């Protein structure tokens, strides 16, 4: 450094400050680069994340925009509920391995121009240039087959369900956000309807908007100010649940007729809405809690009134949703409803779906103990559809298993279903649990069930769900006939 340079530096009073700023800047740039690297890669699978997806979609759209007649597909893959159950139930290494394997399985099917992203824990997104129509269908068949292969661990294997939805660029959206939103709506609809694949179509948007409208009106129907008028819009139907002592030809002799309470929403404009449409909305919004409370009081009061009038041992089953079951005051609500009557608690059965029971087995055991203390019976609904471990089954204080109607509907033609049902009969007998087959529609199916040793039935063959008075009339007639139900004599078209 010559004397003039030295003089200039000494004359610059900001030199130190500038050097410091340059250093800070370099550190900041390094930090930003590090952060970018972090948010670019999903640690469980090593795949690019949502952050990368947005950048790459923009680049793809820009590139395609310059070509004539170019198009590409965005495909969203959502892992089903049983992935969540596995994550909550088993060691985290198991769910991490499942995610890693899923990523590898998808990647193994991709061409050189296809891209994969792991956007949310249970969601993968693909950009597939040039794949549409027949080629997309062929790709999907292989993909769905590959995703449906079991994940094998020591001692057991797990099949993870997946639903997929797709949208085409530019047909279903020119902009990144519209395209992604529409693919998401298609995937959401596939998940809701338990379909392997749905391609976006504008009607899906309409039903998504309808869902929001329905959500708003359920909020209005159950909000605090309307709580005391809840009975104006919601009513209970009752479906007979019978336990048989013999089946000869079409003559079913029954020991007991109970009722399962099934809710219906009488919407002021839309008419009757079935629970499969609004219970998930009530769950999402939390409104299931006031609705469920109302329901429990209704059921207990009805049962009390019926018992006083008929002086016999009618029982009622009440469905509890997952959120209701896990709510702090669930058992207390039932206890205080029972306390206002002189009812024997064992005449109440609570039905919990298999999925809600096995979501968190440790918490489930504690909650079930609180319900058992009350003396009510506990039934596992829709058994066979979720992921459940039989070792947990005998750890819970259960009284009854209801075989899901999926296994019953084709019992006469499907050997696989017969094998499953036969083994459920053996398990239930071994554990001393009552067994009820749901959705019995055909006499053939009932005969097979009877021969296997399953004696509890519910389904349209016996009766559809009925308004309270019709249920009582049905029961009265069966009692008057000497506890006999003639299976072809009951019209299967009444009720709802
Ligand atoms: P679930 O508890 O498994 O109830 C049985 C469902 O199967 C009822 O549908 C019933 O109408 C229908 N079903 C009965 N027999 C047959 C048959 O032979 N064939 C066919 N195809 N279907 C039959 P629903 O009333 O639409 O209820 C659907 C689900 O909604 C119920 O399934 C239950 O999970 C839920 N749900 C109903 N009422 C309530 C409630 O009060 N609270 C809660 N949390 N959930 C409820
Ligand atoms: Mg049920
Ligand atoms: Mg069921």
Please give the alpha-carbon distance between the first and last residues: 96 Å
The CATH homologous superfamily of the largest domain is named: EAL domain
Number of domains: 2
Largest sheet: 8 strands, mixed, barrel
Strand order of the largest sheet: 8-9-11-12-13-14-15-16
Name given to the CATH architecture of the largest domain: Alpha-Beta Barrel
Quick gist of this model?
With 496 residues, this protein is of the alpha/beta class.
Overview of this protein structure:
The protein is α/β, with parallel strands linked by helices and about 500 residues long. It has two domains: about 50-200, Alpha-Beta Plaits; about 220-490, TIM Barrel, CATH 3.20.20. The protein has helices at about 5-10, 15-40, 50-65, 80-90, 90-105, 135-145, 175-190, 200-220, 275-285, 290-310, 320-325, 330-340, 355-360, 360-375, 390-395, 405-410, 415-430, 445-450, 470-480, and strands spanning about 70-80, 115-120, 125-130, 150-155, 155-160, 160-170, 195-200, 235-250, 250-265, 270-275, 315-320, 350-355, 375-385, 400-405, 435, 455, 465, 485. The protein has an eight-stranded mixed β-barrel, surrounded by five helices. It has a five-stranded mixed β-sheet with strand order 2-3-1-6-7, sandwiched between helices. A two-stranded antiparallel sheet has the order 4-5. Strand 13 (about 375-385), helix 15 (about 390-395) and strand 14 (about 400-405) form a beta-alpha-beta unit. It is elongated and about 105 Å long. The model has no long low-confidence stretch (mean pLDDT about 85). It binds ligand C2E and magnesium ion (MG) (2 copies).
């Amino acid at each position: 450094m010559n004397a003039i340079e030295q003089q200039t530096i000494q004359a610059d009073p900001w030199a130190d400050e500038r050097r410091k700023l340059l250093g800070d800047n370099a550190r900041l740039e390094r930090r930003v680069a590090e952060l970018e690297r972090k948010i670019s890669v999903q640690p469980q699978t090593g795949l690019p994340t949502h952050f990368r997806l947005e950048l790459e979609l923009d680049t793809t759209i820009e590139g395609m925009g310059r070509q004539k007649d170019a198009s590409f597909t965005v495909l969203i893959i959502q892992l089903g509920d049983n992935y969540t159950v596995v994550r909550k139930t088993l060691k985290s290494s198991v769910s991490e391995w499942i995610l890693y394997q899923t990523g590898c399985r998808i990647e193994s099917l991709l061409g050189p121009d296809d891209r994969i992203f792991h956007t949310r824990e249970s969601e993968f997104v693909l950009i597939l240039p040039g794949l549409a129509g027949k080629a997309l269908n062929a790709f999907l068949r292989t993909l769905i087959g590959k995703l449906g292969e079991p994940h094998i661990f020591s001692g057991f294997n797990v099949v993870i369900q997946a639903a997929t939805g797709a949208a085409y660029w530019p047909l279903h959206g020119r902009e990144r956000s519209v395209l992604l939103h529409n693919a998401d709506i298609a995937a959401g609809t596939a998940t809701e309807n338990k379909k392997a694949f749905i391609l976006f179509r504008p009607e899906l948007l309409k039903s998504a908007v309808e869902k929001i409208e329905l959500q708003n009106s359920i909020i209005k129907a159950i909000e605090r100010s309307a709580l005391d008028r809840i009975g104006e819009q919601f009513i209970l139907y009752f479906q007979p649940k019978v336990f048989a002592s013999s089946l000869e030809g079409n003559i079913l002799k029954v020991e007991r007729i109970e009722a399962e309470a099934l809710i219906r929403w009488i919407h002021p404009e839309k008419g009757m809405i079935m629970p499969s449409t609004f219970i998930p909305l009530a769950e999402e919004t939390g409104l299931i809690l006031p609705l469920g409370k109302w329901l429990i009081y209704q059921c207990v009061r009805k049962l009390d009134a019926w018992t006083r009038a008929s002086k016999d041992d009618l029982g009622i089953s009440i469905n509890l949703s997952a959120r209701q079951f896990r709510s702090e005051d669930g058992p207390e609500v039932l206890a205080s409803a029972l306390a206002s009557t002189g009812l024997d608690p064992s005449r109440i059965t609570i039905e919990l779906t298999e999925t809600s029971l096995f979501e968190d087995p440790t918490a489930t055991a504690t909650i079930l103990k609180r319900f058992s203390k009350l003396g009510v019976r506990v039934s596992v609904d829709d058994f066979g559809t979720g992921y459940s471990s039989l070792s947990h089954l005998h750890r819970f204080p259960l009284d009854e298993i209801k075989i899901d109607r999926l296994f019953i509907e084709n019992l006469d033609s499907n050997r696989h279903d017969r094998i499953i049902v036969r083994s459920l009969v053996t398990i239930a007998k071994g554990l001393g649990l009552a067994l009820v087959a749901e959705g019995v529609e055909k006499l053939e199916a009932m005969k097979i069930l009877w021969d296997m040793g399953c004696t509890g039935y519910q389904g349209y063959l016996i009766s559809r769900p009925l308004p309270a008075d019709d249920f009582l009339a049905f029961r009265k007639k069966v009692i008057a006939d000497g506890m006999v139900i003639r299976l072809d004599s009951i019209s299967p078209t009444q009720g709802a």
